[in-house]
Design goal:
- It is a single chain.
- The chain folds into 2 domains: 281 residues, L-arginine/glycine Amidinotransferase, Chain A (5-stranded Propeller), CATH 3.75.10; 78 residues, Arginine deiminase (Pentein), CATH 1.10.3930.
- The strands form 6 sheets. A 5-stranded mixed beta sheet has the order 9-10-11-14-15, sandwiched between helices. The chain has a 4-stranded mixed beta sheet with strand order 1-20-2-3. It has a 3-stranded mixed beta sheet with strand order 6-7-8, with helices on one face.
- Helix 3 crosses helix 6 and helix 4 runs antiparallel to helix 8.
- The protein is 32% helix and 21% strand.
- With 404 residues, it is α/β, with parallel strands linked by helices.
- Bound molecules: arginine.
Length: 404
């Protein structure tokens, strides 16, 4: 096992990463429910699972320790206090109904750890509840009605938690369908032996939205955060205060983005591949404006200043580079729009200038290769149906500082 978790950059050597293979949660997606679950289509689950294993194999081949979320959850719910916390959080009067709550909780407490993990991630339908008398909620929802909602976006663990240095930030999810992902991650951090001693949470007190796909650790001292559809400036201010108070970082670069699904997180239009190289979707990243947030002179205050330079220049300087080499989404404007939508600019660096990418983004991958990046591809046809690429499929736990 790799040592204590800690993330010091975006492109230094990746040592350990959290992933989440599609499973029971995605099996519940139907054409009627996928939109509400933030998926653009249903999934061919068997293929998605084997494609995810290809992703995992490439990571392992590169020497990265791959940690599966379901395994962590099984080991976590093996401990009684964690089991109770998660059962009480997900099986409530609001989910299964007042009539069933105590009975389902008692039943869940006795489940084997793997079955409980599948329930917590994959949800619970009326017919899965044992016993005949199920109360009003069950009668109205019908046999296949869902009492506990599945969490299909757990397969994008980038968003629900993010490591900054040796501490972890819990996502405050913009949409309620993703809120319970954070409860699961929080319980794992608090109870699993891998994290219990090592992980300290960065305390961001409020509930303003903040998602990991918007966060990038540029250097141990500077982080970059996008504010578009998902992350709000109110959350960024609170996060900056928490990180400054802890002496963790000196500067937060907060950048504005359009609020749209195609650019839901900063990492959908911009990812770093190496110390001075990024891939971007210029149609959006060209309009990004930055503010720098630093500790103010009076205690507890923030010093906020607009950055006059364009986005790429601000990021380059923060990285200690004279300029950032940019690889734009490849192809003509039609291809570019499609490859950006299919997460062509959402790659995962496993080492400086070595990235994992979806195979389908052929033009962008070729452009990256021409710029000297080693691009390792795996199939994205099924995995991408929830609008997330390799960076979203992963939450780095341990990553070295970048070489400048
Ligand atoms: N870091 C990312 N870009 N994550 C993508 C998350 C996709 C997910 N279906 C959502 O809409 O929330």
């Amino acid at each position: 096992m790799t040592g204590a978790p800690g993330v010091l950059s975006e492109t230094g050597r990746l040592r350990a990463v959290l992933v989440c293979e599609p499973g029971p949660a995605q099996a519940r997606l139907t054409p009627a429910t996928c939109d509400a679950m933030l998926f653009d289509d249903v999934m061919w689950l068997e293929r998605a699972r084997s494609d995810h294993r290809a992703f995992r194999a490439e990571l392992e081949y590169r020497g990265v320790e791959v940690v599966e979320l379901r395994d962590l959850l099984i080991e976590t719910v093996a401990k009684a206090p964690a089991r109770k916390a998660l059962i009480d959080a997900r099986i409530t009067s609001d989910t299964v109904g007042l009539g069933l709550r105590d009975e389902v909780r008692a039943w869940a407490r006795e489940l084997p750890a793997d079955a409980l993990a599948d329930l917590l991630m994959g949800g619970l339908s009326v017919e899965e509840v044992p016993g005949p008398a199920k109360g009003l909620t069950a009668a109205i929802l019908g046999a296949d009605g869902l009492l506990v909602a599945p969490l299909p976006n757990l397969m994008f663990p980038r968003d629900s938690s993010a490591w900054i240095g040796g501490g972890v930030l819990r996502g405050s999810m913009r949409f309620p369908v993703r809120a319970d992902e954070t409860a699961i991650l929080r319980t794992i951090h608090d109870h699993h032996p891998r994290f219990r001693e090592a992980a300290h949470p960065w305390p961001v007190p409020g509930s303003a939205p903040l998602e990991g796909g918007d966060l990038m650790v540029l250097t141990p001292q500077t982080i970059l955060v996008g504010m578009g559809e998902r992350t709000a400036p109110q959350a960024v201010g609170q996060m900056a205060r928490a990180l400054f108070d802890a002496g963790q970082v000196e500067r937060v670069i907060a950048c504005t983005m359009p609020k749209g699904r195609a650019s839901m997180h900063l990492d959908t239009v911009f990812t770093l591949c190496g110390p001075d190289l990024a891939t971007t979707y210029g149609d959006v990243s060209g309009g990004i404006a930055c503010h720098s947030v630093r500790p103010g002179t009076a205690p507890g205050t923030l010093d906020v200043r607009p950055e006059p330079a364009p986005f790429a220049g601000v990021v380059a300087a923060a990285l200690g580079q004279t300029r950032l080499r940019i690889v734009e989404t490849g192809g003509d404007r039609y291809v570019r729009a499609r490859e950006q939508w299919d997460d062509g600019n959402n790659v995962l660096a496993v080492a400086p200038n070595v990235v994992l990418a979806y195979d389908r983004n052929t033009r962008t991958n070729t452009a990256l290769r021409r710029a000297g990046v080693e691009v390792i591809t795996f199939p994205g046809g099924e995995l991408g149906r929830g609008r997330g690429g390799p960076r979203c499929l992963s939450c780095p736990l341990t990553r070295d500082a970048a070489e400048v």
